[in-house]
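Hypothesis: this fold can be encoded by more than one sequence.
Test: take the C-alpha cells below, design a sequence, compare later.
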C-alpha cells in the first residue's frame, strides 16, 4: 500500500516552504523515519521523514519549488526494499550483547518542545558511559530558544552509549543516549568500547553547510553576502538574507563586522580571557530585545508610588493570609491586580499590532519576568484579571519555582499580553524596561526607599517606589500611557480600590 509524503505543519505563522533538497531519488529504498526531503522556510529548515519503510515511488515536487502546508510531495511504495539498512544496524548490535541478559537497551530521544520549537542544543551532560542511573535521574539538559529542559532517565540501569555531545543541535525524535536497563556497571563498561565509535561522525555536523537554494539565488540577485546563518550547522537561509538586506549589510561590511566590534587585545590579555559560547536562550534574549528596539517606537514614562498603604496591609494580614492560603503575601499580587484594573480602562496598553491591524485583548495574561542562572524568562499568569490576589500569588510562586528549577514548560511562557519586571529585588532604583514584543507595554517596579515627601503641607518620610512604563508609541498615545501609570499608582495608594474593583 502506498503512503503519501506531505508538507507537515511548520508553525503558527509559517504557511509555505521551499523544497531545498531530496535525499533520495525514485526507486531508492528507505526506512521508516529516515529523512527524505529537506524543506526551508524563512526561519528554519525541516527534514520530512519517511512515514514507513519501502521505496520512494514518485517525486511530485522538484527542488527549488515553493509549497504550502499539506502539499503532496511524493509517494512511498510499500515493500521490503529497505531491508538491507536494518541488517547493517543489527550487525553492530552484538557489541552490547554480553549485557543483554541484564536487560534491554532503552533509547532516550529528544522530546517535542512545542509547535514553534524545531530544534534544541545539547547543554550539560550529567552522565558518562558506565554510570549507573535510577529512573528520573537527570541525564542531560537541552536548551531551546525559550527555555532549558532537563531530560530524565526513563528507566533504572547503566549508561551504555552517549550519541551526542555538548553543543550538538538535535531535533525532536533524535537519539540522545542508550540505557542498559537493569545492567550492572561492569557489564555496560565492558560493552562501552563498541558504542564509543558512534559519535565519530559528529564532526561532519559541524562542517559549514552551503546556503539554501533560495538564499543563494537571493544573494546572487541582490549582491548581499551572509557569512553565517541561523539554519542547522550555520546554514544560511532565505530569512538570513532578508534580515541582512533590511539592516543594510553588504558583503564587505558583513565580513568585517566582528573585527570592528571586538577591541584589539594583546596575546597576554587573551591568555587571561575566557570565551564562553552563548546559550540558545541568551542568544534569543539578545535578539528579541534588539528586535523590540528596532521595531517598536518605544517610549518610557515615569511616576512614583507611596507603598505605605500596601506595606501596612501586608503587615496587618500577612500571618492570617499565609495561614489561610498557604502562600506568603507579597507585592506582586497587588501590582498584578492594579495592572489588570488599569488595562481595562486603557485597552491600548493590552493590545498588539499585527500588520496594519490592532488586536485588542479582552483578557489579561500577565507575564512576570523571572531572573534565572541561565537568563531572563517570562512565565505567564493567565486570566490574571479573573483571579484574586491570593490566586495570583499562588500562581506566581508556582511559576517562579518552576523557572528557577529549569522545569518551566513552553506553554507557560507563551501568550502574554503585558509584562511586569521587578528590578527592585536586585536593588534597582530606576530603569527603563524594554518591551517584550509583540506586547505594547511593560511595567518596571523598583526598590522601595524612604524619602522625604510633602504630605498636607508637612515633610514626612514615606516608603516610595519609582514606577516606569515602557510602551509602543505606535499604538499607545502619551496621554493613555500616563493615565495607565496614574491608575496603577492610585490603586496601590488606596488599596480598597482593588477590593472594590474601582
Amino acid at each position: 500500500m502506498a503512503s503519501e509524503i506531505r508538507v507537515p505543519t511548520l508553525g503558527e505563522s509559517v504557511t509555505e516552504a521551499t523544497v531545498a533538497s531530496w535525499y533520495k531519488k525514485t526507486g531508492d529504498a528507505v526506512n521508516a523515519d529516515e529523512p527524505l526531503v529537506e524543506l526551508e522556510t524563512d526561519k528554519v529548515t525541516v527534514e520530512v521523514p519517511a512515514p514507513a519503510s519501502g521505496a520512494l515511488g514518485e517525486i511530485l515536487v522538484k527542488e527549488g519549488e515553493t509549497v504550502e502546508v499539506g502539499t503532496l510531495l511524493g509517494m512511498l511504495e510499500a515493500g521490503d526494499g529497505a531491508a538491507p539498512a536494518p541488517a547493517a544496524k543489527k550487525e553492530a548490535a552484538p557489541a552490547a550483547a554480553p549485557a543483554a541478559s541484564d536487560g534491554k537497551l532503552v533509547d532516550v530521544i529528544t522530546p517535542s518542545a512545542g509547535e514553534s520549537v524545531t530544534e534544541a542544543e545539547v547543554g550539560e551532560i550529567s552522565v558518562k558511559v558506565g554510570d549507573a542511573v535510577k529512573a528520573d535521574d537527570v541525564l542531560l539538559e537541552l536548551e531551546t530558544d525559550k527555555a532549558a529542559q532537563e531530560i530524565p532517565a526513563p528507566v533504572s540501569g547503566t549508561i551504555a552509549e552517549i550519541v551526542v555531545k555538548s553543543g550538538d543541535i538535535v531535533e525532536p525524535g533524535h537519539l540522545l543516549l542508550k540505557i542498559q536497563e537493569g545492567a550492572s556497571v561492569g557489564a555496560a563498561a565492558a560493552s562501552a568500547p563498541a558504542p564509543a565509535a558512534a559519535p565519530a561522525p559528529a564532526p561532519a555536523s559541524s562542517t559549514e553547510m552551503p546556503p539554501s537554494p533560495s538564499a543563494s539565488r537571493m544573494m546572487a540577485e541582490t549582491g548581499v553576502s551572509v557569512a553565517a546563518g541561523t539554519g542547522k550547522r550555520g546554514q544560511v537561509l532565505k530569512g538570513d538574507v532578508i534580515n541582512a538586506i533590511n539592516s543594510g549589510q553588504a558583503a564587505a561590511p558583513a565580513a568585517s563586522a566582528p573585527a570592528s566590534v571586538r577591541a584589539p587585545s594583546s596575546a597576554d590579555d587573551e591568555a587571561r580571557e575566557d570565551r564562553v559560547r552563548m546559550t540558545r536562550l541568551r542568544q534569543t534574549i539578545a535578539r528579541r530585545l534588539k528586535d523590540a528596539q528596532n521595531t517598536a517606537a518605544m517610549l518610557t514614562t515615569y511616576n512614583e508610588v507611596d507603598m505605605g498603604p500596601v506595606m501596612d496591609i501586608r503587615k496587618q494580614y500577612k500571618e492570617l493570609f499565609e495561614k489561610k492560603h498557604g502562600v506568603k503575601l507579597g507585592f506582586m499580587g497587588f501590582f498584578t491586580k492594579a495592572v489588570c484594573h488599569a488595562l481595562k480602562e486603557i485597552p491600548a496598553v493590552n493590545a498588539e499590532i499585527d500588520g496594519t491591524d490592532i488586536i485588542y485583548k479582552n483578557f489579561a495574561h500577565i507575564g512576570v519576568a523571572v531572573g534565572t542562572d541561565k537568563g531572563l524568562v517570562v512565565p505567564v499568569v493567565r486570566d490574571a484579571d479573573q483571579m484574586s490576589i491570593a490566586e495570583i500569588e499562588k500562581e506566581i510562586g508556582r511559576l517562579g519555582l518552576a523557572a528557577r528549577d529549569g522545569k518551566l514548560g513552553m506553554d507557560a511562557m507563551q501568550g502574554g499580553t503585558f509584562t511586569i519586571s521587578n528590578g527592585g529585588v536586585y536593588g534597582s532604583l530606576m530603569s527603563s524596561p524594554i518591551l517584550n514584543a509583540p506586547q505594547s507595554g511593560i511595567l518596571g517596579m523598583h526598590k522601595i526607599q524612604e524619602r522625604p515627601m510633602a504630605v498636607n503641607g508637612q515633610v514626612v518620610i514615606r516608603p516610595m517606589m519609582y514606577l516606569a512604563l515602557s510602551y509602543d508609541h505606535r499604538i499607545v498615545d502619551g496621554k493613555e500611557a500616563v493615565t495607565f501609570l496614574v491608575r496603577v499608582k492610585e490603586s496601590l495608594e488606596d488599596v480598597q480600590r482593588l477590593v472594590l474593583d474601582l
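The chain has 13 helices and 27 strands. Residues 81-101, 185-207, 249-260 have pLDDT under 50 and may be disordered.
Hypothesis status: open.
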